[in-house]
Write a structure and sequence with these properties.
By secondary structure, this protein is an all-beta fold. It contains one helix and 16 strands.
Amino acid sequence: MKFASVCLPTSVVLLIASLGLPLPASSQPMWEPVSYGLDDSRLHVVAVDPQAPGALYAGSARAVYRSDDGGRHWSQRFRAPGSAEATFVAVDPFDGRQALVATTKGLYATADDGRHWIRAFRGGTAKEARCQAVLFHPARRSEVWLGTAGGVF
């Protein structure tokens, strides 16, 4: 097993296991950085497209980046609006073109690999608008779970 990481000097923020020949039980995994070219040094969220494992998202509080080549090259695909901060990224397991970014001011969705985004959830209260995690259901197409400071939706 080989591991890659979006790795900064003080933090490891992305772990990708790519299948290969199994390592002997006594061996330690090999780590290699895949964060070259990222502008942001405070990455804290990551997601992988399960249908295209080379397609990765990595996010900081202000922006979300995408790589289509396993982390060799990155481009910014989402910028948190105003004072909002990105808190979580999820990729649809049935359609990798679709992704969601949870922010402190709502949920944003893309259906084209992050080229265009729409606000998908505002919340009825300030607490509900503070999205903290989002998850596509792994077996039920189009089912999404959203965790906010005001509850689970």
